[in-house]
């Protein structure tokens, strides 16, 4: 297979509810959509969901655009491949830039599935027709405001609630939510906000009393030893996110017992091919996985839904309905969660129709290889 044309569309969508993590608050998102076409007119879409600011990782939207135009586009145009898993090799010499690579690799998978007339989920080896969805809730101005958000989403049927925590916003909000919802599937995520000190470890150990499904990424990404030390003193499983960029990191996590759950983010791991490899390695090791999100638009969200249908994804994933984040998505029919479940599309390719006209009218940057040469 050969890709003949690539178009990049940078789009900004406002959030229906601002979202705060341990590092910052955001009210809108700017992502890059990758549109790849072959000579027969088949098209695949991917999404570069890199953050605007360098808080979650070192990549940003601005940098991803530059890397895409200067390095990824020419390599993808020059690649000859039979299966999308081969595309990674075209980018092998480019270090890092996992978010940017992920958008191109997802487009290749969607294109191949379209040309093969099979759903993306089937192309990935998925076995489920629907997946359980969880939601991720940010830090709110007050505990009452947080409880209102939790109540809204549990009432909507979501199967799991993740609470963002940070130093100064941890024990009290978790205690309040657990008291109000004693049977809810609840976990917390620090995005690496805590220092690896005895005092921080002692505080985090207090979370053991709340019956959490997991404590996600309490310490900085490369500090496997601090995670292992905390895991050895608490019963609650630690889940790693930012720490695991590739399968070698997963092997380190397992060897050190630095985590007992894995958050597989397609963007963080550099694309669907590496996400598949992590899923398979985790299954072999008996590590439960779930699909994390970066507040993707409909294109990236559709890929996450397809991935989440694989057998190893035994925990609710961040594949909540588009309406939780956006009043208007980039796909014509949004991702919908009904009673906390999302149906896996059975149409060929991505499974959702991309709204080309709306994107063309609302994008804030555009690149087309057909006119750039």
From TrEMBL:
Enzyme nomenclature, EC number: 4.2.1.113
Gene3D superfamilies associated with the record: Enolase-like C-terminal domain (3.20.20.120), Enolase-like, N-terminal domain (3.30.390.10)
Superkingdom of the organism of origin: Bacteria
InterPro entries membership: Enolase-like_C_sf, Enolase-like_N, Enolase_C-like, Mandelate_racemase_C, Mandelate_racemase_N_dom, OSBS/NAAAR
UniProt keyword Protein transport, yes or no: no
One of the GO BP terms on file: menaquinone biosynthetic process
One term of GO molecular function: metal ion binding
Keyword Iron found: no
Needed co-factor(s): a divalent metal cation
Enzymatic class: lyase
Residue span(s) of domain Mandelate racemase/muconate lactonizing enzyme C-terminal: 143-237
Keyword annotations from UniProtKB, A to Z: Lyase, Magnesium, Metal-binding
Protein name: o-succinylbenzoate synthase
